[in-house]
């Protein structure tokens, strides 16, 4: 049980190359921006779209993180309940 927890913590805290972390985020934003932009647009329109896409992406990432944390908390509570039964 302790080893399993250690492995989960190690996976969560794995430190990748900093460039890789930002590159993935940037690539996803850039791809979405390219697909949503058709024709000529003004600089202000482009910046507004980019900001909107970045905010949406950050919101999704925060949601995923919250879901993972909630799931992990449920697992911990289930293990505690099982431990208390014994």
**What ranges have pLDDT less than 50 throughout 5 or more consecutive residues?**
none
In total, how many beta strands? 0
End-to-end distance: 15 Å
> What count of helical segments does DSSP give?
3
Mean pLDDT: 79
Shape: elongated
Structural class estimated from helices and strands: mainly alpha
Give the radius of gyration: 20 Å
The number of distinct structural domains comes to 1
- Portion in beta strands: under 5%
Query: Roughly how much helix do the residues carry, as a percent range?
Result: over 70%
Organism: Obania subvariegata
GO biological process, one term: chromatin organization
Protein name: Protein FAM50 homolog
Biased composition (Basic and acidic residues): 53-80
Task: Present the secondary structure layout.
Layout (H helix, E strand, L loop, with lengths): L1 H12 L4 H19 L6 H43 L1
Helix pairs in contact: 2-3
Description:
The protein starts with a helix and ends with a helix. It has 86 residues and is mainly α. The protein has one domain. The mean pLDDT is 79.
Q: Features of this protein?
A:
86 residues, mainly alpha, 3 helices, 86% helix, elongated
Summarize this structure briefly:
The chain is mainly α. The protein has helices at residues 2-13, 18-36, 43-85. The two termini are 15 Å apart.
